Amino acid sequence: MKVTIEKSEARGRVAAPPSKSCTHRALMCASMAKGKSKIIFPLDCDDVEATVDVLRACGVKFGKNGKQFEVEGGVFSSPSEELYCRESGTTLRFMTAFCSLVGRSRLTCGSSLLKRPIGPLVDSLRQLGVRCKCADGYPPVEIEKRGIEGGKTTLLGDISSQFISALLLVSPFTPKTAICLTTPLESKPYVLMTLEMQRKFGIEISLSDEMQNFLIHQQRYNPAVVPIEGDWSSASFLLAAGALTGKLEVRNLNFGSLQADKVIGEILKSMGARIKINREKKSVAIDKSELRGIEIDVSNCPDLFPVICVLAANAKGISRITGIKRLRIKESDRVELMRKGLERMGAEVKEEDGEVIIKGMSSLSGATIDPERDHRIAMAFAVLGLVAEGETLIKNAECVAKSFPGFWDKLKELNCEVVKSE
To answer: Could you tell me whether strands 83-84 and 132-135 are parallel, antiparallel, or unpaired per DSSP bridges?
Structure first.
């Protein structure tokens, strides 16, 4: 599918979709709890469907009752077929660890995910007594036998927080496990989200002040009823549309959230956006604003990189974005794709010494953008298309279903010129 966007003023009220990160973590914890759990208002997207399908193949029972999942977990069985994780990195990483509880299994994934490393997680699981392997550090992954013994494992903290979260999720099944990070942890909020979700299911984990050491004793997951909060990552694109083009209100946002991308509010404020927070209504109101450049490290909020680039391209002055190393091994090389797309639309972009430098422009032009099936790239350039002169065409626009299936319809609800075509 292709989507064409024209210059528009985004106006109205819209609700942020449920959090993908919280939905994934709730599904994993519920699947390990013996008994029935309820997950209320989960996100229904491609990545979540991948996790549900793989968990179901491992013996977890799922039901759907209106806007909630009913999960009956705690009893597992070895899958009869290969486990296909689609393009969901979260599914692949979490399920690689989970399958140590299940038994013999083989996990594979889509083409872009096959290029993303998983070797450090496999090595850590081996240190904990899991019989598993992968070729040259990349998927597919094979679990040869059920069992995780525990003990001590070490791994880098600056490759993927999902590796740490995966280990934390299964470690309560061991007598005792110590996880020691040999480099400072990046994306700390995502690990904190994992720990918070585990607490909702009765799991308590000790950690050092710097979050480089975790100690887990044997515990049992208890069934729980968990509502899923709104997704700040998805909301960031809507808020950016408001700051650049019009006047809108985004609802369903938890200001006490541990989500890393909640920082988008502070980023917009620091760039000069006219933004009003209503904690009681769980909403953010934002108007078209004259933005100024920013200097920001995105190590802890890498998913905000594309939308920050779009804001910077429309801001007065120079913006410098650091902490970009891991962005090259996301769904795409996000640094390269954002640079190419921004230049195609008339922005000035440089990359040097581990930072991206963007000069804000008073005028940008529409262009044809191939997001290479990266959902966040597609949504970022859709927002930029709302302020560019002429038409912006997004190829493979259906890729937004990975995290925000209703994105194009939301833009239409906000009075934006959006046309879908085959």
So the answer is: unpaired
